[in-house]
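Chapter review. Work through the record for G-patch domain-containing protein before attempting the end-of-chapter questions.
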Amino acid sequence: MKPSPFFRTSGRVLAALAFSFVTACGDDKDPVDPPDSGTPTTPLYAFVAQVSVESTSTSYVILTDKVDHTEPLSLANATEIPGRALGSGIEKTGALFVSSSGSAVVTRYNVTADNKLEKAGEVSFAPRGLTTIGEYQNQFQFASDTKAYYFDGRTAQIVVWNPKDMSLTSTIPLPGMTIDGTVLSFASNPLRVGTKVLMPLAWRPSAGIGITKKAGIVVLDTETDTAQIATDDRCGYVRDGVVGADNQVYLATEAYGAAVKRTAMANPEVPEPCLLKFDPQTAKFDAAFYKSLGALTNGSATGSLLQGPTGSGYLRVLDESTYTVVEGTHPRVIASAVAWKWWKLDLKADMTAATLVDTLPASTGSSFLFHAGDRTLFTEFTNSSSTTNFRELTDQSGKLVATHSGLSFSFLQLR
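Structure tokens for G-patch domain-containing protein:
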């Protein structure tokens, strides 16, 4: 189903998928506004980089008029934000909403005529019990220029707020998200089907290494501002999902969950990575559908599912011919290795195998998807997670298009 013009969805990957918020703008050289509108006509993008030195993080909002760069993006003229910053907003509307791990405040920045960021208001989420804001950009979801949502795991609620006048509106409690003795993680790429936001959930033990054998998903209806949580106990760390051509949602164990199982293959208490199916209309998991991810990739360690061309998705598969799993290696290290290949999976009831996409280079297992017009980029963290590369996914080339120091969890086309 086609998303509303103001709602950002993370499920689109290729131009063939209709996941843009506003009218498609073609490539980077196409004008966004009519020539006589009195406003700049060149595109403008915001990269947000988090640089950590001795456990202290500082973020930088880098503005640029193009996506493709042959040299690393410079932090010299960037807007500096203390802590881990997230930049979010509605694509191509000239506004960026910046939050930070250092507080519960969201600041609105408008883009000026000379391509600078100008503060235009702020709102504190502290009255809703928050003391900090994290983890990913897409925990902020925008239904319109006057209504947005923030999914918060620490307080188990969705904060509803107005990004136009920068005020709090209401909250939607989510008590079913909390599981004692676990740490909750949201999807980095939530989904949109019609008026619903689908936010997959994953849990892991708060102590030790492992994953919790439970899948979950929040279904938020943006028309009624109501939400419900559905769960399934057949496997765990099911944090990635895509929408199939049948409008069903396919959910998979993320790469970290696959890495945990790879280090504990003989332990039956650690659930195998799996693929489940979810109906967004009934808000129920399909009890008759279950696929072992490894069985789809010749028994390889497999995790994460990203949107592919219509009716398909990309699985991430660990290539152990180039990366050796050494006993005692932390699963985070394995999931972060530049050794996860891309396999295409056709999403259908009788799926039996995925197919290697040999034009895409192996990259880190946990990838974020970002969109620039009709292009989709994926990220990889390299140099001991001190550098972020942005690569092309649209044409399945994996071409390096931009890089910068630090980690990037946010990217937005501002104009």
